[in-house]
Amino acid sequence: MQEKGTISIHTENIFPIIKKFLYSDNEIFLRELVSNAVDATQKIKRLAALGQYNGEVGDVRVEVAFDADKKTITISDNGIGMTADEIKKYINQIAFSGATEFMEKFKDAKDANEIIGRFGLGFYSAFMVADRVDIETLSYQEGAEPARWTCDGSTEFEITEGSLEERGTEITLHINSESEEFLNEHKLQEILDKYCKFLPVPIKFGTKTESEEDGVDEEGKTKYTSVEVDNIINDTNPIWTKAPSELKDEDYLKFYKELYPFSEDPLFWIHLNVDYPFNLTGVLYFPKLKNDFEFQKNKIKLFSRQVFITDEVKDIVPEFLMLLHGVIDSPDIPLNVSRSFLQADSNVKKINSYITKKVADKLAELFKADRKAFEDKWSDIGLFVKYGMISEDKFYDKAKDFVLLTNTAKQNFTLPEYKDKVEGTQTDKDGQLTYIYTNDAKKQDAFIQSANKKGYDVLVMDSPIDNHFISQLEQKLEKTSLKRVDADVADKLIKKDDAPEHVLTEEQSAKIKEIFDNAIKKPAYKVELESLSPDELPVTVTMDEFMRRMKDMAAMGGGMGFYGNMPDNYKVVVNGNHKLITRILENDNAETQAQLAKQAFDLALLSQGLLTGAELTEFVNRSVSLI
C-alpha cells in the first residue's frame, strides 16, 4: 500500500503560521501530543463501555520516550488508533478534529466530555520543534491494517503500510537543530510535570529506581534491594475529581504540599464541585498572607479536563481571589484554538460570580461555626477579606456580617457590634458617629492614651489597604466617619458641647502664638492656640485627616499623585490651658521663653517619631543644659 497526496489547506500560507505562531510557547507541543494520546485511550474505553468494541482494552497508558543520539521524541499510546482513511481525514485536513466528531457522535453518552481535543490543530504543534514527523498507527477496527504517515513540515505527506502489530498510535518527532534542548531528560520531565501531572491516563516517562523489601538479614533487619520500575509521572485521580466526602484533611494538605512544596500549611480550603449551569471542579486554598501585601498571584492553576492550561486566571477568578492558591478545572471555560488563553464568554462571568459566592459562604460558615477559631485566623485572613470588600460590592454585602474590627485592646467586633460599643461616647453634637483608629500603635501611643482618657476606643488599622477600607466604610456606614487618632488633639477629634473654657486673654494668646512662631521658624508648621484640658500635652503636632489620607494613598500608588507631590503641612496645637504655657508667659526672659517653647515643640515631635538626625541631637543637648 502506497499513496502520495497534498494536505488540504485552503489558504496557501496557513501551514507555516500554524507551525510557528499558533502557540505562544514551543514546549506546548508535548502537552498537545500527550493530550491527543490520552484522548485516544479515552475513546477506546468509551467505545468498550458502550459495547462498540468487544476486544480486550487492557491497561491503557501513554508513553513518552526520547533518543538523544537519533534526535527523536516519541509519544505512543494503546488507544483507538487510526486507519489510513482516518489519517487522511483527521491529520491531512487541518482543523477537522476527530475529538469533535467523536463527541458529536456520542454526545448523549455519559462523560463524553472526557475527550480532551477540540480543534484538531494540536498535532501540528509538533512541527514547531521537528523537521519531520512520523505516525505509526493501527486502528481498533476489526481487520484494520497498520498505516504509516510521514511529513517533513511542508504540505507534502506520504502514507505507506505501517509496522505496528498492536492497537494504538506512535508519533515520532525528528527534532530540528533549533530545538535540541528538548532532547534532555530533565527538560522533558519538567514539561510533563507542568502540563500532564494530573492527566486521567497513566503517562510513562522512562524508569526510576525504587527500594524494595528483600527479606531480612541475620540480625532480623529488613533488607532492601534496588529495582527499576516505570516512571509514571502523573496522578490520574487528583483530589478535585473526587467527592469531598471521600477526602480527609490530610488529603487536602498533602495535595497542597504537592502543588506548593515550600509553602506553609494553608488556613483552610474550599472544594468546588458544580455541574449546572456549567461544569466546574477544583480546590481553592487560603494561604497565610499576614500584612506584607506581597501578594503572590498566579498561584491558581487552570485545567481543562485535567490538562494544565495556564496560571493566568484573572478573568475567571475575581481580582481579590487571585490571592488564593489551588486548582480550577472546567471543560466549559472557553479557550482559544491553542488552548493557551481564555476567550470572553458568558460562562466566565458565571464562574467568576460562583467562586466569589462560594468563598463568601465558606467564610460566613467558619465565622458562625466557631467564632473563636475565626478570630484566631483573622490576622491572616483580614487583609484578604478587606481586599475583597473593596474590590467587589457583592462580596462586601456578604462579608459585612463577618468582617472584624480590632481595637488596641485586641478585642474583635463585627460592624454592628462596634457601632453599639462606641455610639454612646463617640457621637458628636451633630449626630455623626466617629471611629478613631491608629495605623501605628507604638508611634501614636501618646495620642491613643489621650483618646482613652476621654473614654474613646481606638481601632487598629495598620494593613496596607486600610486607607481604602476606611474610605469604603465611610461610604457604606450611615453617618459615620473615621479619624486617625493623631489627626487632631483628643478634645477636637469629636466635636462636643463641653469644650474647656479659655484661661488666656486675647492678648496672651497672641503673645504665645508669636513666641512659638519665632521658636519653630518652619513654614510647614502652623501654630494654633486651643483651649484643651489641662491634663492634655502642652503641644501637639497633627496633620489634617483628609490630607494625610490622600498622601498615604498616593504613597501606595492609589491614584492620588497630586497629593503625594505636595509638601507635608502640620498643625502645631498649643494647649493654652496647660501650666507650661502659663509658665512661659510669666517668664520675663525672651530667650528662656523661646527655649521652653522649642523644647515643648520638640517633645511633641519626638513623641511621634518626627524628630530625627541633627534636630534630635540638638534636642538632647538642650535637655541636658536645662537639667
CATH topology of the largest domain: Heat Shock Protein 90
- The CATH architecture of the largest domain can be named as 2-Layer Sandwich
Low-confidence stretches: 9-14, 95-99, 109-120, 336-343
Overall mean confidence score, pLDDT: 84
Terminal residue distance = 111 Å
Number of strands: 22
Radius of gyration: 36 Å
**Principal-axis shape:** elongated
Q: How many distinct helices?
A: 19
Return the domain count.
Answer: 4
CATH superfamily of the largest domain: Histidine kinase-like ATPase, C-terminal domain
Binding site for ATP: 32, 36, 77, 82, 97-98, 169, 339
Domain Histidine kinase/HSP90-like ATPase: 25-179
Family: Belongs to the heat shock protein 90 family.
Pfam families: HATPase_c_3, HSP90
What does this entry look like structurally?
With 627 residues, the protein is an alpha+beta fold. It folds into 4 domains: 2-205, Heat Shock Protein 90; 239-374, Ribosomal Protein S5, domain 2, CATH 3.30.230; 404-493, 3-Layer(aba) Sandwich (Rossmann fold), CATH 3.40.50; 506-544 and 564-626, Heat shock protein 90, C-terminal domain (Four Helix Bundle (Hemerythrin (Met), subunit A), Up-down Bundle), CATH 1.20.120. It is elongated and about 120 Å long.
